[in-house]
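Sanity check

After download, print the first record. It should look like this:
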Amino acid sequence: MSNVAKIKEEYPEDYSDVNPNFLFDVDWIIENAPDELRSEWEDLIYYHIGEDDISVMWDVVQKYKEPYISCKFHHGIPYSKNDDNNKEMNKRIVTGIKRKINLWKEFVYSKKPLSGISINVALCTSLPKQYRVDGLLDLLTSDRAKKLSDRVFWKCIIHCWVMTEFPSQSKDIFQSLFNLRPVPKVFTRNLPDEMTVYRGGLPDGWSWSLSRERGEWFASLYELTESEYLCWKTKVKKEEVLFYTNDRQEEEVVFIPKENLIEPIHKKNLTIVKKN
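Expected structure tokens:
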């Protein structure tokens, strides 16, 4: 009897509420796949995606009672063997994953020189946002990346940072990218020698803004929390900044802050939060 079957037997009323630590994600995924697609999922997982690169989105499963999974080539896959609509969706997703796998392999193993455009196109057409930073690290540590200029090299990193919804969740990978080459000064040349920057939410993130209004806007997203401190400010020197980008209209300054220099701004002093 598989792990999933054992859990179902022990918790017949609703096994999706079980602590996911008791389950192996791959077992759960295969057993919940539509019968006619189970062998295709097994082939995808074991020979193309990899057991360690696919997982169950347990928070979604438990909230919506629907099986959702995430892998390097698709994020948020619903399927149910008792739902004809989901069966058809599942077929399309399997076909889409195979296509993306082939596109990615074709690009990774190509002998053509890399360019900033080709890298961004490959990442956007083959990988979901959550996995593009992993893919970029693979590309920029390959021999083909050695011929990229520093400026193009870092443009790819900055583009990936901007396209990642929560870059702080991938700090280790971004840190590896940041360590690959020195940052060209062109990405900070318009900044003052020293500046005050702002951040809403947790103070340990690397993404800050020259705009207090933008910092307060992010703080307003957390206004229902009990904390009295939702916004932070600190001073940073130009030479400490990795790069500046305004691609998201956020006047974003990316650097690793010094904890002892971060000052909290009390909730009562936040204009946007008070308005809301």
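If your output differs, re-run the checksum step. Summary of this record's structure: The chain has three domains: 3-106, 128-178, 190-275.
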